[in-house]
Design goal:
The protein is built from eight helices and 16 strands. The chain has 289 residues and is an alpha/beta fold. The longest helix is centred in the middle third of the chain and has 19 residues.
Length: 289
Amino acid sequence: MLVRVKGVEAMALTEKRTPDMIEFLFPEGKDKAVTFSYDDAQIYDRRLVSIFDQYGMKGTFHLNSGTLGEREYITKDEVGTLYDNHEVACHAVTHPFFNELSQGMMVRELLEDRRALEGYTNRIVRGFSYPFGEYSDRLMETARQLGIVYARTVEDRMNFNLPGDFMCWHPTCHHNKVTDAMIEDFLNPPMYRNLALFYIWGHSFEFERENNWDHIRHICEALQGREDVWYATNIEIYEYVTAIRSLVMSADGRIIYNPTATPVYLMIGYTKACVPAGMSLTLCGEKQS
């Protein structure tokens, strides 16, 4: 099978595969991704951000705008610069138990948090993590209506799977559960695994409280600098996977159209290829039944 892609050179692979097999890849043809997610914006985020930047990691930091500037929390003036290489996302204004709130209070907690964080960062904020890990259908629907596109739970799934619903995004695990064996399994996966996502979450104050800053350094050192790993924020993962799920295929399977603004990488048989933003990829030759 040949692949024709305008303006994009296909890269031949040598491993044995079914000629008409199609599998998706992360940007630049990578098959693994790592992302971090940290809540509450306490002052220990400063040290954690420094560690992430040192090792080339990307994280998403979920902030409560109502606590910024209080004792043990970063200041409002820091938000726009401290997280410059990372993503800022919502965590509600006051970190409430959402199931106890009226609809109006729920809307205010979400919308005002988003509005404040966008003002501090001059970025559009679309991510969220559920305070206390508490969520419901009502909260998910309200968040969607207010422009939130993904929301993280605290339910560790201990796997590297992508979420079925980004508004109920279960992470791989809390950082305290990350082991060398888990890292080894992620970096050297079985042949059947595809698009592996290692999603680690927690709170930066936990490293200070438990005196285990060496643990996050060890994790970052073990995961750093891999050519086959994409280091991304939560929103980058969301946008790319959404682009994959937005691809349109012709009835005979010979044409793949990408209607999004994000190039999508894939493997077709023996070849890696890319469907550029707003363009089509045509599979040449007869389609096998």
